[in-house]
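Thread: 5CA complex, take 2
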Amino acid sequence: MRLSRFFMPILKENPKEAEIVSHRLMLRAGMIRQQSQGIYSWLPLGKKVLDKVNNIIRDEQNRAGAIELSMPTLQSADLWQESGRYDAYGKEMLRIKDRQDRPMLYGPTNEEMVTDIFRSSVKSYKDLPLNLYHIQLKFRDEIRPRFGTMRSREFMMKDAYSFDLTREGAEHSYNKMFAAYLRTFDRLGLRAIPMRADTGPIGGNLSHEFIILADTGESEVFCHKDFVGFDIPGENTDFDSVEGLKAIFDKWTSLYAATSEMHDEAAFNAVPEGERLSARGIEVGHIFYFGTKYSEPMGAKVQGPDGKEHFVHMGSYGIGPTRLVPAIIEASHDDNGIIWPASVAPFDVVVINMKAGDQACDDTCELIYAALSKAGKDVLYDDTDDRAGTKFATADLIGVPFQIIAGPRAVANGEVEVKDRKTGARETMTIEAAINRFVA
Ligand code: 5CA
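Output below.
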């Protein structure tokens, strides 16, 4: 992508409305724009990161056996009247009427709709287990939307829903998502700790929030500090192994970890003082097992091997991609801007032409840009005629992991500089070596 043809409206000044660093940096880097309170557009740079986050989430959901579909944002109130949540959900639900005066709503979550899809076609235990997910916008009319897309009114959610014949089966489905979440957050460059959690309006009695530790987090959390060093389940994890996944779940729930709603002071005090961690955290995922809470009132049942009808046991599993993007920034930035983990960086490398219009600089940059693009790298080429200082500041701000800097003096020697955004280390090398550094 040539910067001269891209749309990346960088802000020079710090926006006044931003209270936390991720919100400030997302606005300054031109990633998002607020359209009305708690409702955002994702501008091209932000959209690229969001897509990469979603692809990692998708990859790990698929690995764990979940199947993707897409459900609408607008839902009919009827389904919610069946489950009893239409009245219970309160003012957070945005209620709308269509032209026939039928009550509709902008979905805050999808338990009812997915249960309706399930009951319309699944009739036998032989079709279980089943886990259906989508990545879709949600709306919750939060009292205090804040911190940009960290807590917005319209936000994206990956929500998965599992269906099993028995409680034991449902626990295995829960453990699959538990392990998939550990892998997902790790691939996003985050250390997320599962904590026992309150179930709120979703319901049920088994629930974990996945929390990343950050000073700007909204939740107060308490846990054993060994969680910070626990191993993440590997790529070869067998998601069909009931014992294998149970062992992962047991290990990751063996030590104290709870959010403030579930906090037990006495149990926490039993942890040796030097091993206690009490901190603030950001909830990036939340998983629930709620048995037959929706299947019973909505009549979602299957025929079991005993020939009888059984209400299915369900769980739901949420991740917030539009919250994860600022959460990643909270965890990875410095005074100059964002430092993206390679897995979600909007570009792999930025080529900085320090003197656009200078034939040697232009030729060198074009050569590198073409070679890296051909090798499948996602390259941003700063071909603008801005001052070098502005270009460096922009490259640092948007946090692309590597910069290839082509200035007249180095180029005259057939060389360029390669800068590592994270460490700040700069290395001068031949043009060929710079290309090979990323292609090889
Ligand atoms: N149906 C269940 C799980 S599928 C559910 O709705 N769970 S939730 O309410 O805990 O939300 C799941 C995830 O969505 C949260 O962990 C969080 O990452 C994200 N999320 C929730 N509310 C917001 C919000 N207002 N802004 C941004 N992300 C949010």
